[in-house]
Amino acid sequence: MSILVNKDTRVVVQGITGKEGSFHAKQSLEYGTKVVAGVTPGKGGSTWEEKVPVFNTVADAVKAEGANAALIFVPPPFSADAILEAADAGVAVIVCITEGIPARDEARVKAALRTTGAHLIGPNCPGIITPGECKMGIMPAYIHKPGRVGVISRSGTLTYEAVWQLTECGLGESTCIGIGGDPVPGTSHLDAIQLFNADPATEGVVLIGEIGGTSEEEAAAYIQAEMKKPVVAFIAGQTAPPGRRMGHAGAIIAGGKGTAAEKMKALTEAGVTVVKSPTELGAAMMERLKG
Amino acid sequence: MKVHEYQAKEILQRYKVAVPKGRVAFTADEAKAIANELGGTVVVKSQIHAGGRGKGTFSDGFKGGVKLAKNADEASELAAKMLGNVLVTHQTGPLGKQVQKVYVTECSSIAKEYYLGIVLDRAKQMNVIMSSTEGGVEIEKVAAETPEKILKTWVDPLVGIQPYHAREVAFGLGFTGDAFKECVKLVTALYQAHEDTDSTLTEINPLIITEDGHVVALDAKMAFDDNALFRHPDILEMRDLTEEDPLEVEASKFDLNYIKLDGSIGCMVNGAGLAMATMDVIKLEGGEPANFLDVGGGATTERVKNAFRILLSDKNVKAVLINIFGGIVRCDVIAEGVIAAAKEIGVSLPVVVRLQGTNVDKGKALLKESGLEFAVADNLKQAAQMAVASVK
Question: B127: number of CA atoms within 13 Å, CB side?
């Protein structure tokens, strides 16, 4: 078991003929992911890399190939459109990698998705991977290993750091989900932790947060009330100055709110093991799963 | 991206938000001419990207970045004192900011001050209009001490502002009669401006009612979503580079995310989260990071070279820590960039490199064979310890 994606997931890559889309579609295919279709408006009818049929619309890809998940690599001005197109075509899981989408577009898309039942991951994220089954994203495949721990993170490379430790210490990962660093993410920490709580294959969860917003606090409230599995967390940006955007559009302490200290406090009070350094995540999870 | 008050008001006026008449002046003579045009008592306001100007002090001891002038000659004198002078407020930090221009406006007779602001509520994922009868003071202070005095009105992004939203605000602030109608109009216009321009913060503090009963935005602050600037070339033109750190401006030319801090260990990392975490680990090991620097997912040799150059031009930097977790970015490419940069610029500082991920062995081998003295660490903790030890 896993969350959201598995060996039966049928992926359509939007923007498959672009540089990024093409490169990562290839990596996903090599990993064994069922990349069943591509979409590039105007290139419908062609075949990408002599392997994957390309369609003009997501609806066509769904109809012809039974795609049920979309992986989006289109430039920021067109990303909102791409997400809405996928949702409208009935795609259940939509992963948007694109960084730099205006927050106004994200808020509108998020509101529009409420009525569709589609599950959006990202934008501005590394994607989602269920090791050994399905890779929808830009994460380096080889650092992952099928296993027992779920990973939720707002960051890319920091996630790899955590995953690498879980793999090295032999725990492995059930599913790793990068929720992205933007102010209006499709999936929140809370959404992801609920899914992991319900997944029988996940025995513990590593939660990686960062400054800005209240996503970690919302997850903490749920963990305290409902979580049946151990959670280990790290919050990046303990030394970040207020009022400055730390790379990610959503990583900013605004009006004194969204500090690492607040988030660490909320999580600790909810029974989460909060580590001060990301280098301790693997060991802390080993410890929690022992007990 | 931030803009000055006079620029924010320029934008708001396009939406028919009522603001006091005024213009920007770059010299004392210009200030005098504008004051003459306006006639009577005017206000001379220092234009810097920071709040608290009225209560600020200039580095030569002159008090107040916002002053009343009874006539044009006084306006000219005040402008002369402010222009070129460095204004320190609670938001600028101790170094303050140099005033390059002043905004000369007509003087409004204030009957009462209010607060009005629009910002994205990240928890609810929609914009919230915040209004309060406690105007003219910091809203953070009101929120902390008397949160019940802040009225919050949420606007669904799919429907946008409706008349009832604006009425709720105007009723909440206690307006009646014609002032009520003016407030409804102003709130609607303000929201439209916020939405159309991809503003991340639109703040009127204070919003006032004048003694003759008009509702006016006395001050204005706007900041814009960097991700949306591609569709607002007119706003991008308002960017004032003199308000930004020169190293940060230089970094932005190469698509590098760089933020200068006060410590002594320069960091170069791929990925924003890992970059923040690297700063945290340095601090945990007893050091102080000199900067935040994300070289990004598509780091090329050229980009790494520029990143290295910018890092080293900060004179506080005594050691450099490079932390790369290769995914898309290959470790050998990073190593090549670092070696090229070190050879070109000539580095006399200790450089600690930690590589992990794609092509890590190749990267480490390149560093070793370069003949340059890099300290290679196996993990982040060790790297931070080595960097901290080297500056002590």
Answer: 30
